[in-house]
Amino acid sequence: MIPLILLLSMSGWVINLAFAQSLVQPDWSLALLLGALLAHRGHWPWVMLAVWLHDLVLHWSAFVLLPWMLLAPLFMAWSDEQIGPGLMQRFMLLLGMMIPLWFWGWDIQACFLTMTLSMVTWYVVARHHEQHT
Amino acid sequence: MERRALWGRLFLLGALIASLFIANQFPIGQQITLGLGQLLYAVKAPVRWLDDASLWLQERGTLQDELIEARETLSQRSYLTQQNQSLREENHRLRLLLHITDTQGYQWRVAQVLGRSPEKKSQHLILQAEANRDDVVVASSGLVGLVDQSHDNTAVVRTILDGSLAIPVTLKNSSLAALVRGAGDHLSVDFVPIRMAPKVGDVLLTSGAGGVFPPGLPVASVTSIEPVAGRIFARVKATPTAHWQRDNWLAIASQKTIPHQP
């Protein structure tokens, strides 16, 4: 599953660069990576590496979404310990991650599409993870 | 023991942040984007096929009208080319007489846009063209930016909205000398004295100072001017005159190398 997500995530860069401004599209790469992280917080090392590359390719800087993404597994670990694992905390985190995306000049529609794709990925990866444990 | 583990983690975190800062100093993203150039060309193939196919579906009358219009434009252009050549010759003779260096020494060519960065205003572009670092990229409506890296018929461009570019500008028939800097989704114009402030809607042109940008290119249209209490310079905001978010073709201007004269 991990290689497939990474491959799709890299394809996402190409689609984002090729069709920017000609159609409204999500941040494919971020949506897939965020979905994978929400499904299982232990995915954080390769997700962070991929987010770092995502930032470099699409924004030419390592400090666009990565600092926010670094906070995500910490928040998940903290909230799982304090409140217990729950959907609401994960949803809030997903919503929170759309703020830097919007701040960096993405359309509100693109943020909404990213969130939607992220939820689908989250469901698929979580299901896959469940079947294999 | 726990204290030692904590220090170890903090050291790792510090090392990670330091390595990110160091990696940020190198054009890694630009190099990866350059490598994606051919892939972007391949991905856009269906769009090109669709454009070609749409020609077959256009009506004959529309195509005839377009042909007549193109012929008229061509005849106008040939007249302008002749006029341009004679003016260039005259300009060259005058410069020789006045012993002035030739500032018109740019080679122009067109380049196709392969991709854009996905933010609303696109701060970076990928072009299919042979180019050198610091070549100037221009749209029909004004300055777009500078070539940042190039390799194997692909070039990545930093547009004027990128914060790392500063362009010396002036106003037509004015002694104003200001700097336009990118601020993400708009441009900010620095060093504009209040008494020389332009009006909203005025177009700022490249001054040619510094020798990177050819003089006289439209850069930005002024959108707001605010005097700041206690300062001699006004806070001026502007918007680029060029619209590279939609243009599929742009022009690249490379400086001609001037042979060294003894």
SSE order of chain A, as H and E?
Answer: HHHHHH
- The CATH topology annotation of the domain at 166-240 in chain B reads as Thrombin, subunit H
In DSSP terms, counting alpha (H) and pi (I) runs of 4 or more, how many helices of chain A? Answer: 6
How many discrete structural domains of chain A?
Answer: 1
Order of helices and strands of chain B: HHHHHEEEEEEEEEEEE
How much helix is in the residues of chain A?
A: over 70%
Question: Which outline of chain A best applies?
Answer: globular
Taking Cα atoms only, what radius of gyration of chain A do you get, to the nearest Å?
14 Å
Termini Cα gap of chain B: 73 Å
Q: Helical stretch count of chain B?
A: 5
Largest sheet of chain A: none
Assess the beta-strand content of chain B as a share of residues: 25-35%
Going by CATH, the architecture of the domain at 166-240 in chain B would be Beta Barrel
Strand order of the largest sheet of chain B: 1-2-5-4-3-12
What is the helical fraction of chain B, as a range of percent?
25-40%
Whole-number mean pLDDT of chain A: 91
Radius of gyration of chain B: 24 Å
What is the average of the pLDDT values of chain B? 85
The counted number of beta strands of chain B is 12
Verbal overview:
The complex is a heterodimer of chains A (133) and B (262). Chain A is mainly α and 133 residues long. Chain A has one domain. Chain A has helices at 2-18, 28-39, 44-59, 66-82, 87-103, 108-131. In chain A, α1 (2-18) runs parallel beside α3. The longest helix of chain A is centred in the C-terminal third of the chain and has 24 residues, at 108-131. Chain B has five helices and twelve strands. In chain B, 34% of the residues lie in helices and 31% in strands. Among the domains of chain B are: 2-35; 166-240, Rod shape-determining protein MreC, domain 2 (Thrombin, subunit H), CATH 2.40.10.350. In chain B, the strands form two sheets. In chain B, strands 1-2-5-4-3-12 form a six-stranded antiparallel beta barrel. With 262 residues, chain B is an alpha+beta fold. Chain B has helices spanning 2-24, 28-35, 37-43, 45-57, 60-98, and strands spanning 106-116, 124-128, 136-139, 142-151, 154-159, 166-170, 178-182, 187-193, 203-206, 218-226, 233-240, 249-255. The A-B interface holds A 13-18, 20-22, 25, 27, 52-53, 55-63, 66, 104-107, 110 and B 20, 23-24, 27-30, 32-33, 36, 39-40, 43-44, 47, 114-124, 126, 184-185, 245-246.
